[in-house]
Design brief:
With about 100 residues, this protein is mainly alpha-helical. The chain has helices at about 25-50, 60-65, and strands at about 85, 90-95. Helices cover about 35% and strands about 10% of the residues.
Length: about 100
């Protein structure tokens, strides 16, 4: 620096004997973000269930459309390796003759 500049110490910085770090507080951060994640997950699950408009049973049709149920079509997927054929409009096992 220049010789003409005047420098004086206003307050001397003295460190503490064992200073604790101000940030990050790991335990607090983990607790807060765990609670945040749980609340977000529960809210998302609730929202997805609320927006689900699929028909699950006959009562959903009766209540939603206000129509009576006239019949029921049963269909099961064939097991692995099981052949399926249509006989007189009915799906059944393949029987060899």
């Amino acid at each position: 620096m220049n010789d003409k500049a005047e420098i004086s110490i206003v307050a001397k910085a003295v460190p503490y004997d064992s200073p604790a770090p101000v940030s990050p507080n790991k335990m607090f951060n983990m607790a807060v973000f765990t609670m945040f994640g749980l609340l977000l997950g529960a809210g998302l699950a609730f929202l997805l269930e609320l927006l689900n408009s699929t028909v699950k049973n006959e009562e959903d049709i009766e209540n939603g459309l206000e129509l009576p149920i006239l019949g029921n079509v049963l269909y099961t997927k064939p097991k692995k390796g099981q052949a399926v054929r249509l006989v007189n409009g009915v799906i059944g096992k393949d029987q060899s003759f």
